[in-house]
């Protein structure tokens, strides 16, 4: 087998939630470059259409589909539309999520509910809509968890709660859908430089963005943040046939954050 034949997704239909920006956009680009027909599902219509158009302009297959994953009806409508266009669903990347800063005391009930609805309920909505189709022929599901799923980050009470749920939902789905030829894994990145990080710095440290960017970069022992393309490369492997032996696992991709921060 030639190296070029590895990690190909030709003939596969891939759905990427939150694919308008950041890590999701990098995954959408990577999968389309490897031959997949990619559907970007996002609630940011403008950015989603731009990302899909940029991919399509390079002779790859990508389309945008509006979807607010927190709303079951919106998810149903999006999946019906996609199933009408593509006869099968092979890959689902549950990437969309929102963040929140706060301790158990400073997190309001409303914020907790919002995080749970988008980050946990949203993934559940996607699974309920996609699994009946994927069950027919098998497939791959990849969930974006976080280092916050497995260790205590300061002031990330709501966010960590939702990402812990993603890691265990991954196990449950992997177990229940093994008989249908569906694999399910999760990726747990440390800090990755995306619009989310820039927005967080601008909001919380106005005028000190550069200083704080360096500080956040240094918390990865490797000395920098991850790049969305690095997460996308791992996602490609996990969703490719080369990873056919992998299911029910969470994979850190974290510049040494988990094991080398002593
Ligand atoms: N960036 C990091 O440092 C980092 C680290 C660990 C894990 N992650 C995880 O990786 C994933 C992507 O993170 P990112 O930094 O690229 O985020 P981002 O904020 O840059 O992009 C998230 C995308 O999700 C979309 N989205 C948000 N809510 C949605 C909803 N209800 N319905 C549909 N789309 C919605 C947004 O419009 C956006 O396009 C998330 O699950 C995040 O928790 C990120």
Mean pLDDT: 97
Give the helix tally.
Answer: 9
Structural Rg:
18 Å
CATH architecture of the largest domain: 3-Layer(aba) Sandwich
Q: Give the end-to-end Cα distance, rounded to a whole number of Å.
A: 42 Å
Provide the CATH superfamily of the largest domain.
NAD(P)-binding Rossmann-like Domain
CATH third-tier fold name of the largest domain = Rossmann fold
CATH class of the largest domain: Alpha Beta
What is the N-to-C succession of helices and strands? EHEHEHEHEHEHHHEH
Ions, cofactors and other ligands present here are:
nicotinamide-adenine-dinucleotide
Mind explaining what this structure looks like?
- This protein has 262 residues and is an alpha/beta fold.
- It folds into 2 domains: 3-190 and 229-250, Rossmann fold (3-Layer(aba) Sandwich), CATH 3.40.50.720; 191-225, no CATH class.
- The protein is 46% helix and 15% strand.
- The protein has 9 helices and 7 strands; from the N terminus they run βαβαβαβαβαβαααβα.
- It has helices at 22-33, 45-56, 72-85, 109-134, 157-176, 195-204, 209-218, 228-239, 257-260; strands spanning 13-17, 37-42, 61-66, 91-94, 139-144, 182-189, 250-253.
- Strands 3-2-1-4-5-6-7 form a 7-stranded parallel β-sheet, sandwiched between helices.
- Helix 1 (22-33) crosses helix 8 (228-239).
- It is globular and about 50 Å long.
- The termini are far apart.
- The mean pLDDT is 97.
- The structure holds nicotinamide-adenine-dinucleotide.
- The site of nicotinamide-adenine-dinucleotide (NAD) has 30 residues, from helix 1, helix 4 and helix 6.
- Nicotinamide-adenine-dinucleotide binds next to helix 1, helix 4 and helix 6.
């Amino acid at each position: 087998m030639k190296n070029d034949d590895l990690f190909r997704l030709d003939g596969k239909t891939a759905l990427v939630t939150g694919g308008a920006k950041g890590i999701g956009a990098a995954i959408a680009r990577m999968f389309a470059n490897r031959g997949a027909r990619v559907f970007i599902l996002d609630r940011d219509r403008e950015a989603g259409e731009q990302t899909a158009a940029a991919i399509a302009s390079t002779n790859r297959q990508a389309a945008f589909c509006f979807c607010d994953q927190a709303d079951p009806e919106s998810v149903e409508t999006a999946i019906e539309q996609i199933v009408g266009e593509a006869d099968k669903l092979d890959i689902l990347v549950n990437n969309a999520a929102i963040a929140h800063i706060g301790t158990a005391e400073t997190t309001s009930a409303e914020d907790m509910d919002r995080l749970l609805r988008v980050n946990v309920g949203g993934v559940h909505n996607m699974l309920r809509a996609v699994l009946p189709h994927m069950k027919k022929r098998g497939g791959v599901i990849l969930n974006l968890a976080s280092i916050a799923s497995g260790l205590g980050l300061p002031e990330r009470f709501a966010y960590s709660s939702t990402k812990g749920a993603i890691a265990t939902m991954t196990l449950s789905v992997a177990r229940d859908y093994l008989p249908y030829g569906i694999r399910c894994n999760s990726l747990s990145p440390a800090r990755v430089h995306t619009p989310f990080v820039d927005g967080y710095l601008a909001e919380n440290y106005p005028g000190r963005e550069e200083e704080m960017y360096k500080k956040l970069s240094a918390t990865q022992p490797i000395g920098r943040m991850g790049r969305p393309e690095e997460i996308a490369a791992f996602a490609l492997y996990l969703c490719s046939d080369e990873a056919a032996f992998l299911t029910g696992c969470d994979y850190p991709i974290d510049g040494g954050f988990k094991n080398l921060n002593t």
